[in-house]
């Protein structure tokens, strides 16, 4: 069974075509700057040169048409016809409380996705556009929606509710939803495999650290708390997002700096985080270089990030009554050698210690704690695409049997 995984952003589209008989990647790539005349298309195949083009791509439907054409191309393709694509799995950011699992996409599901777009106006519309484009081009191929929020639907009410009037939740759906769920679920499962145990027997803290970051407490295979909330803005200090702040700061800034709501929203989402503190960059590699050269604000931004992650880890140890493993994943988690070291510095009271030599890796799967540590530390590269493909296969398997 071949599954096409599609991840649409507002001006981007990432994809992978996987052969699920052995979970191998047949092709993968991405489109950047969709909607522009100089959009960038990159296509990769195992053991072959990368294809890169710059051309006008006005919308996601055009991007998918280009994608499907190259998949069957005599020179660059990996399948003989589109009939070899058995199902399509779509990453959808927000499923609200409507979806606690991945689902086969139907007209009723599409209606619900549009309802969810009201609380995720930046994220869900591009996801919906990708689904509609695939439905138009491949009307007979089953499509599956896989939600970033679904894994966190196991959080108890005391964890996900805000202390606002209850009607804000019951009438408007204002609550903590959490994100990066597909990634947290994958690395937790992989962590359990590496430890030779079942997820139901473990307490895992998963740290998905990138330009957008979140930490999740996973007890018995279930998410019981996570740092992001109603939107991906809350929680940790991030690349350009402020994370948790006193909500009274918003009207204060609007008053003192004569800002509109939209301007404050942009400030918190695009101009804050380590970028706002450092005044240098949201790229942690650039910050580390600047800090080494003596830039105190760059060092402060890094210190704040490390402190906030460490503080959340400590809180989640408390809510789970202990921890068996801490996992680092995503761009910074997988590649930030110094960041992992700084975050773990001070966690020795848990019964764990980072092995500096083992920690000297980027993008590799490895236990990096000192041998014999009571609490294990792992670096596990995330693989959201394989999780989407697995769910797609699980849901559509009976539909596509030949």
Automatic annotation (TrEMBL):
- Give the top-rank taxon of the lineage listed in the UniProt record for this protein: Bacteria
Reported EC number(s) for this entry are 2.7.2.1
Site Transition state stabilizer — annotated at 180, 241
Q: Which SUPFAM superfamilies match?
A: Actin-like ATPase domain
Q: What is its main location?
A: cytoplasm
Annotated binding of Mg(2+), by residue: 7, 384
Q: Which GO terms describe its biological process?
A: acetate metabolic process; acetyl-CoA biosynthetic process
PANTHER family under this entry?
A: ACETATE KINASE, ACETATE KINASE-RELATED
Tell me which family the UniProt entry assigns to this protein.
Belongs to the acetokinase family.
Entry protein name:
Acetate kinase
Q: Which gene encodes it?
A: ackA
């Amino acid at each position: 069974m071949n599954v096409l995984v599609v991840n649409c952003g507002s001006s981007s589209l990432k994809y992978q075509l996987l052969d699920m008989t052995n979970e191998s990647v047949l092709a993968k790539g991405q489109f950047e700057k969709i909607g522009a005349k100089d959009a960038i298309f990159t296509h990769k195949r195992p053991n072959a040169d990368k294809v890169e083009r710059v051309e006008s791509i006005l919308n996601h439907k055009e991007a998918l048409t280009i994608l499907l054409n190259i998949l069957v191309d005599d020179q660059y393709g990996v399948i003989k016809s589109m009939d070899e694509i058995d199902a399509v799995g779509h990453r959808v950011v927000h499923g609200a409380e409507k979806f606690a699992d991945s689902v086969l996409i139907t007209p009723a599901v599409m209606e619900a996705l549009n309802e969810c777009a009201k609380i995720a106006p930046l994220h869900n519309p591009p996801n919906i556009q990708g689904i509609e484009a695939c439905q138009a081009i491949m009307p007979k191929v089953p499509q599956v929606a896989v939600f970033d929020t679904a894994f966190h639907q196991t959080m108890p009410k005391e964890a996900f509710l805000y202390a606002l009037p209850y009607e804000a939740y019951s009438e408007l759906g204002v609550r903590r939803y959490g994100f990066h769920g597909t990634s947290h679920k994958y690395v937790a499962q992989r962590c359990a495999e590496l430890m030779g145990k079942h997820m139901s027997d473990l307490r895992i803290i998963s740290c998905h650290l990138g330009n957008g970051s979140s930490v999740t407490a996973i007890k018995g295979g279930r998410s019981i708390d996570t740092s992001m909330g109603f939107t991906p803005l809350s929680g940790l200090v991030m690349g350009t997002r402020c994370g948790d702040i006193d909500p009274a700061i918003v009207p204060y800034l609007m008053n003192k700096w004569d800002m509109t709501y939209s301007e404050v929203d942009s400030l918190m989402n695009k101009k804050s985080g380590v970028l706002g503190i450092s005044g240098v960059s949201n790229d942690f590699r650039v910050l580390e270089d600047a800090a080494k050269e003596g830039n105190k604000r760059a060092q402060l931004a890094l210190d704040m990030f490390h402190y906030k992650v460490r503080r959340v880890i400590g809180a989640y140890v408390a809510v789970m009554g202990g921890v068996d493993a801490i996992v680092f994943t995503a761009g910074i988690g997988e590649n930030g050698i110094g960041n992992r070291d700084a975050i773990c510095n001070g966690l020795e009271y848990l019964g764990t210690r980072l092995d500096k030599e083992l920690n000297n890796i980027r993008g590799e799967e490895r236990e990096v704690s000192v041998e014999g540590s009571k609490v294990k530390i792992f670096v596990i590269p995330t693989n959201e695409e394989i999780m989407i493909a697995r769910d797609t296969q699980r849901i559509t398997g009976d539909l596509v049997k030949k």
